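Morning!

As promised:
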Amino acid sequence: MNRAAPVVRLRVPTDEDAVAWHRIFADPDVMEFHGGRAAELSVYEELTARQRRHDAERGFCLWTMVDGSGRVIGFTGAQPWPGDWGPKGEIEIGWRLGRAHWGKGYVTEAARQTLERVRGAGVAEVVAMVNARNARSIAVTERLGMRLAEVFTIPGSERRGHCYRLNLHQG
Ligand SMILES: CC(C)(COP(=O)(O)OP(=O)(O)OC[C@H]1O[C@@H](n2cnc3c(N)ncnc32)[C@H](O)[C@@H]1OP(=O)(O)O)[C@@H](O)C(=O)NCCC(=O)NCCS
């Protein structure tokens, strides 16, 4: 792909960013694979506070994405896998973008910045856990060159999930 990457900046999420995430993610399209409906503000307050702790402890987290005009458009970054199943103890990369900003390459660019920072922090390998029907998210993993390592059943559901992996010391 030869298109110029869009301008996107990553910053550690502030308390105010919880309000921005809550507002831009309150959309059924964005939440299709995250319970189907908007999450409470308290969910984002907890999530952003947890990311600030990750940043302090590890030097990376799920960062707030800011576009070229300073608008908050979503999050992308890395965190320890938060589940009590799956790739426990590993580093997960993840992304969520406001609906108005899909289709512009923001997350692929933010994920590339994420991989550089995480590699710089000494992480050898990352995983991405994606619902098997989430074609847009799977396309991001493909653009990043991740490989499908495992297909699993999402606990508590009949749904299938994909675990993608990327070794950060190759190439
Ligand atoms: C998954 C999600 C982040 C993908 O967003 P996206 O905008 O499709 O992904 P990118 O930012 O990588 O953009 C790629 C798209 O921008 C287009 N694009 C435009 N300019 C581009 C550029 N310079 N570089 C790369 N892609 C560009 C690509 O062609 C592609 O569009 P297409 O899918 O219509 O072909 C988004 O759909 C989302 O937030 N979903 C809801 C939350 C979610 O499911 N998160 C993942 C959980 S695992």
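The chain has one domain: 8-167.

Hope this helps with the figure draft.
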